[in-house]
Write a structure and sequence with these properties.
Elements: H1 6-11, E1 15-18, E2 23-25, H2 29-40, E3 46-48, H3 56-60, H4 92-105, E4 115-122, E5 127-133, E6 139-144, E7 147-149, E8 156-157, E9 171-174, E10 188-192, H5 196-207, E11 211-215, E12 222-224, E13 226-227, E14 230-231, H6 232-239, H7 245-260, H8 275-282, E15 287-289, H9 292-297, E16 301-304, E17 307-311, E18 314-317, E19 322-324, E20 327-330, E21 334-335, H10 338-341, E22 342-343
Parallel strand pairs: 1-6, 2-3, 2-7, 4-22, 9-20, 10-11, 10-20, 11-16, 12-15
Antiparallel strand pairs: 4-5, 5-6, 8-21, 13-14, 17-18, 18-19
Protein name: Flavin-containing monooxygenase
Keywords: Auxin biosynthesis, FAD, Flavoprotein, Membrane, Monooxygenase, NADP, Oxidoreductase, Transmembrane, Transmembrane helix
Pathway: Plant hormone metabolism; auxin biosynthesis
C-alpha cells in the first residue's frame, strides 16, 4: 500500500473533473472491451492511460517475434472479431492493428499520459476520487460513482535481487526491453526465468546464434501448444465442461508425456500440482512450447539450475558450476501496480 498522505495529495490537485459514468484505468484490451460495451449502451465513461498509446505493454514492452499463444477466437474482444484473413495465432503487429481498429470502430478516445497516483472511495459522498498526474506535472482529480481497474497483471517489471548482479559489468536487461536476439549474435547470454517469455526469448537468442543458457530454478509445466491439431487451451476448456479439473489435468499431462516425452532429463522439473490447478491456486501459467524444447533437446539451449551469485563477467550456479557470460536477460515477469494506488481496506490484487 502507498505511504503518502491522502489528504495532501487530493488537496494539491489543480483541476477537478466530474465523470457521469465509470472511470476506467488502463487502455489495454480489457479497458477497451469495457469501453466498447459501455459505448453500445450509451453510457458515458473516461479511460485513463498512463502511456501515450493504447495497449502500451504490447506496443512498447514486447519482443518482435511475439505472437498470441492462444488461437485468435479466444483473444478477440466483444462485438468485433479478428479479420478472417488473420492467421490462427496473430503476430504482435496484427494484434496491435486489431486493437487500434477496435478503438476506432467504437470511437474510444482514452485520456493519454494520465498516470493514476491515487484512487479512493469517499464513503461520505459515496463517490470515487481518482487523482492523476501528467508528464508536465498537471494534476487532475476525476470524481465518479464507478471505478473499473483494467491495468492487468503486467504493469511493472519484476527485477530480482541477485547477489553480485550490480557488479557483473556486462549488459543486464529485462525482457520488457528485449526486441530481438540480433545484437546478441555470438555472445554468451544467461536468461533468468523459464516461463513463456524466458523460453521464447531463449529460442530467439538461439536462432540468432547466441550461446544461450536458460536458468530454471523451480519446477515448470511445459505443454505442447496443440494436441491432435487443436489448441491445448481449447481442448482443456472443452473437457472441463464435463470433467473435474483434476481429471483434465491428468489427461493433459498424459497427452503431453506422449508428445513431448520425459523433459525432466533436460533439467525441466514438473510441479506436483497439475497445470490448471497450479494456475487456479497460484497464478502460475504453464509454458506452451513453440520450439524451444527442440533446441533444449539438441543442447543448443543449455538449461541450468538456480543462480548463487554474479561476479565480473561470471555467474556461479547453485551446483557450484561457473559460467563466463557476456549478457544477462531477466525474464522474471511482471506484477500489478494496483496495490500502490488503489486505497481500499483490503487489496488482494
Amino acid at each position: 500500500m502507498a505511504s503518502f498522505n491522502d489528504h495532501d495529495l487530493f488537496s494539491s490537485t489543480s483541476r477537478c473533473v466530474w465523470v457521469n459514468g465509470p472511470v476506467i484505468v488502463g487502455a489495454g484490451p480489457s479497458g477497451l472491451a469495457v469501453g466498447a460495451c459501455l459505448k453500445e449502451q450509451g453510457i458515458p465513461f473516461v479511460i485513463l492511460e498512463k502511456s501515450d498509446c493504447i495497449a502500451s505493454l504490447w506496443q512498447k514492452k514486447t519482443y518482435n517475434r511475439l505472437k498470441l499463444h492462444l488461437p485468435k477466437q479466444f483473444c478477440q474482444l466483444p462485438k468485433f472479431p479478428f479479420p478472417q484473413h488473420y492467421p490462427e495465432y496473430p503476430t504482435k503487429k496484427q494484434f496491435i492493428d486489431y486493437l487500434e481498429s477496435y478503438a476506432k470502430r467504437f470511437d474510444i478516445n482514452p485520456m493519454f499520459n494520465e498516470c493514476v497516483q491515487l484512487a479512493k472511495y469517499d464513503k461520505i459522498c459515496k463517490l470515487w476520487r481518482v487523482k492523476t498526474i501528467s508528464p508536465n506535472g498537471l494534476e487532475v482529480e476525476y470524481i465518479c460513482q464507478w471505478l473499473v481497474v483494467a491495468t492487468g497483471e503486467n504493469a511493472e517489471k519484476v527485477v530480482p535481487n541477485i547477489e553480485g548482479l550490480k557488479e557483473f559489468g556486462g549488459e543486464v536487461i529485462h525482457a520488457c526491453d528485449y526486441k530481438s536476439g540480433e545484437k546478441f549474435s555470438g555472445k554468451k547470454v544467461v536468461v533468468v526465468g523459464c516461463g513463456n517469455s524466458g523460453m521464447e526469448v531463449s529460442l530467439d537468442l538461439c536462432n540468432h546464434n547466441a550461446q544461450t543458457s536458460l536458468v530454471c530454478r523451480s519446477s515448470v509445466h511445459v505443454l505442447p501448444r496443440e494436441i491432435f491439431g487443436k489448441s491445448i487451451f481449447e481442448l482443456a476448456m472443452l473437457m472441463m465442461k464435463w470433467l473435474p479439473l483434476w481429471l483434465v489435468d491428468k489427461i493433459l499431462l498424459i497427452l503431453t508425456w506422449f508428445i513431448l516425452g520425459n523433459i525432466e532429463k533436460y533439467g525441466l522439473k514438473r510441479p506436483k500440482i497439475g497445470p490448471l490447478e497450479l494456475k487456479n491456486t497460484q497464478g502460475k501459467t504453464p509454458v506452451l512450447d513453440i520450439g524451444a524444447l527442440e533446441k533444449i533437446r539438441s543442447r543448443k539451449i543449455n538449461v541450468v539450475p538456480g543462480i548463487k551469485r554474479f561476479s565480473c563477467g561470471t555467474v556461479e550456479l547453485v551446483n557450484g558450476e561457473k559460467l563466463e557470460i557476456d549478457s544477462v536477460l531477466l525474464a522474471t515477469g511482471y506484477c500489478s501496480n494496483v496495490p500502490f494506488w488503489l486505497k481500499v481496506r483490503k487489496c488482494s490484487i
